Amino acid sequence: MTTVWAGIAIMVVGCFALKYAGLSVPPTVLQHPLTVRAVELIPAGLLGALIAVQVLADGSSVQVDARLLALGVAALLLALRVPFLPMVVAAALVAALVRQL
Amino acid sequence: MTTDRSIVVDSLGVGLATGAYGVSFGAISTASGLSVLQTCLISLLVFTGASQFAFVGIVASGGNPLTGALTAVLLGSRNLFYGVSMAPRLDLDPRARLASAHFVIDESTAMGVTRETRRQARLGFYWTGISIFVLWNATTFAGALAGDAIGDPRTYGLDAAVGAAFLGLLWPRLSSWTGRLVAFVGAAVALGLVPVTSAGLPIVLGGGVAVLLGLLWRPRAAA
Hints:
By secondary structure, chain A is mostly helical.
């Protein structure tokens, strides 16, 4: 539990520091094309990895179950431009219903 | 000519739509084993959605919270660049910068960065940022209480909701081929590492490898 608090503290300090630094540093410091590009790519890389682990990992094994079906439904709804909250709720319901079967 | 009034109305619209899904964060967080207090403090003090979901997702899957925090901070790195692009438009003195930094997020930047005058940039930025902040924290609290009452998150598919939330956040970035490639590589590498490393690490390593590949890929294509 203490580690959870430590994680929260790191996250609070780290995320605020990034926001504050952005408003404060002279823009030229961060204008290197490689830096700009890396920051553009980080969310896509991390979110891709997060999705894969969240949906397919079960401890240290890979498992296909209701979560993958729910992700498929989420993708379909996003393609149909359904807003975030209804899309998330629908995905959860699909997984819950499949597990009831 | 955009009126001040229309900026405020648009900002509140974005604020309502975005702030509401704090409920999904709150529910997922407490259902994943975090306390209501921890959940609410994260929304109050971290206040950047993707990072919050990442931390909770990693802790829920048995990962080390420190790895979760690292992932969250890496995801928050985009706020650094939002700050850089907002700074000249907001034109703030040091004290105001300290007070405003917390509201530098995806939506407030999007609503502020396109304005032509300082006044309108500030209107878009603060009305969006602060309305999301208020609502996000209120809905987090409501969701946290609900998630606490639910018990096992799997019963209502809340574990699947996390994946869907991540996909929703990723979706706008899949419009380019580079975005798709990087996301796919991140997913593939992370999945490959799941059986061989401790929980949490596949995400940081998969994301890292994907970003490196994305950086190498472009110069070659351009050459």
